[in-house]
Write a structure and sequence with these properties.
Layout lengths: L4 E7 L11 H12 L3 E7 L11 E4 L4 H14 L1 H7 L3 E5 L1 H6 L2 E3 L5 E3 L6 E5 L5 E9 L8 E7 L1 E5 L4 E8 L9 E6 L2 E4 L5 H4 L1 H12 L10 H15 L3
Parallel strand pairs: 1-2, 1-3, 3-4, 4-13
Antiparallel strand pairs: 5-6, 7-10, 8-9, 8-11, 11-12, 12-13
The protein binds glutamine.
The site of glutamine (GLN) has 11 residues, from helix 2 and strand 9.
């Protein structure tokens, strides 16, 4: 953070942007501007270098092949790992989440190396694909209201010793390994299976990232009415499936 200006980096919109995950960048940007911050948003295509000076980095979900390419390119680029060692905040969804872990199974059925920024390993679920609305309780340490999102993944994710579960599932599958957890985080690096876009359903997550970037405990209130209406609709969909 410098001079009231927040640098927001949206990684690889050309590869990782399923289910409107790019909406996460819009919501973080809007919530920051509503708090009087000047936001510089950089969208980095997969043939461009990742800047290392960002405050918040966002990565979305993707199909299996783009996921393989994205992981290869992110490792070769090295910028995201450097940014994290400098204290950057990262929030990743689905394929992006798997890429941030130590490894995942790619579209060729091979184990592929991830960035190792999250202490998780993803494998291919043996059962049915995890699809549907999810309701989960976020780790109380983060002080956020319940998580609502939409999941659609075959991969399942096992947490290592140092990763904290992001949330505990009430309805839905989440990480899909039977421990009831959804997502994971290590310090300022977060991963979730939730689409939605997840920030549109959970604007408090966007606020959390902004607070971490500003190193403050609270932000001025913002108008949450539209978000709240969407939350209630989607929570009802998760708890009373058709
Ligand atoms: N390809 C991954 C899986 O199915 C991620 C899917 C996604 O990002 N929606 O597990």
């Amino acid at each position: 953070m410098s001079d009231n200006s927040l640098r927001l980096v949206w990684i690889y919109p050309d590869l990782l942007s399923t289910y409107g995950d790019q909406g996460n960048a819009l919501v973080v940007e809007r919530r920051a501007r509503q708090r009087g911050l000047d936001v510089q948003r950089v969208d980095v295509r997969s043939d461009q270098q990742i800047p290392t000076s960002g405050d918040i980095y966002l990565i979305g979900g993707g199909e299996d092949r783009p996921q393989r390419l994205a992981s290869e390119r992110l490792i070769r680029d090295g910028g995201l790992s450097r940014a994290v060692s400098n204290g950057a905040i990262v929030f990743s969804v689905c394929a992006g989440y798997q890429i941030l872990g130590h490894e995942f199974i790619n579209d060729l059925g091979e184990r592929q190396q991830g960035l190792g920024l999250l202490d998780v390993v993803s494998t291919r679920g043996e059962g049915e694909r995890c699809v549907g609305d999810v309701l989960a309780d976020i780790d109380p340490q983060l002080g956020l209201p319940p998580l609502t999102g939409f999941e659609n993944h075959q991969g399942v994710t096992h947490l290592g010793k140092t990763a904290r579960p992001f949330a505990k599932v009430r309805f839905g599958k989440g990480n899909g390994v039977g421990d009831g957890y959804e997502g994971a985080y290590n310090d300022t690096v977060f991963g979730t299976y939730m689409h939605g876009p997840v920030m549109a359903r959970n604007p408090h997550i966007a606020d959390l990232l902004i607070k971490l970037a500003l190193d403050v405990n609270a932000l001025p209130p913002a108008d949450d009415r539209w978000y709240e209406a969407l939350r209630q609709e989607r929570i009802a969909a998760a708890t009373q499936p058709a």
